[in-house]
Amino acid sequence: MNPIDSRANDAHEHDAEWIPVLAEDALGEGEVVGVEAHGEEIAVYCVQGELHATSDLCTHGFARMSEGFLEGCEIECPIHQGRFDVRTGEPTCGPVTEPLRRHAVRREDGRIWIRLDQGAG
Questions:
Q1: In sequence order, which ranges of the chain are alpha helices (DSSP H)?
Q2: In CATH, which of 3.30.830.10, 2.102.10.10, 2.170.150.70, 3.40.50.720 is domain 6-120?
Q3: Residue 67: what are its φ and ψ, rounded to 5°?
Q4: pLDDT in the model for residue 119
Q5: Calpha distance 42→55 (Å, rounded)
Q6: Under DSSP, is residue 77 helix (H, G, I), strand (E, B) or coil?
Q7: Residue 31 and residue 112: Cα distance in Å, rounded?
Q8: How far is it, in rounded angstroms, from Cα 32 to Cα 42?
Q9: What does DSSP assign to residue 85?
């Protein structure tokens, strides 16, 4: 997990504000990185130049998606090999059946920012 600037977090509300989580250059094309924002574990993905963010915990078991295998737009759980579409959070291959919670994500001022209010699917 990459730490975030806790001073920035103190100034923001938990659900509605953008939170800086990562330097933009810390995430390359085709990569996934695990971060923490307000105590929530988040996986941030860069796929075809687009950023995506989901819960870092698999909905099927207690595995970190950021430790899984990213191929195209799908992340594979490192434990049971279930897959999710990182763009939507929806499962694409069993044994997973529940979607990952998604989060809004953007680039600004050389950083990657997350908003914790987008919801599932």
A1: 6-10
A2: 2.102.10.10
A3: -100, 5
A4: 57
A5: 5
A6: coil
A7: 14
A8: 10
A9: E
Q: Are 106 and 113 in contact (CB under 8 A)?
A: yes
> Where do the structural domains in the chain lie, given as residue ranges?
6-120
pLDDT in tens, 60-96: 988 999 999 999 999 999 999 999 999 999 999 999 9
CB 36 within 8 A of CB 42: yes
pTM, entire model: 0.84
Residue 45 has a pLDDT of: 98
Instruction: Please determine, for residue 15, whether its predicted confidence score (pLDDT) is greater than 90.
Output: no
DSSP 8-class letter at 6: H
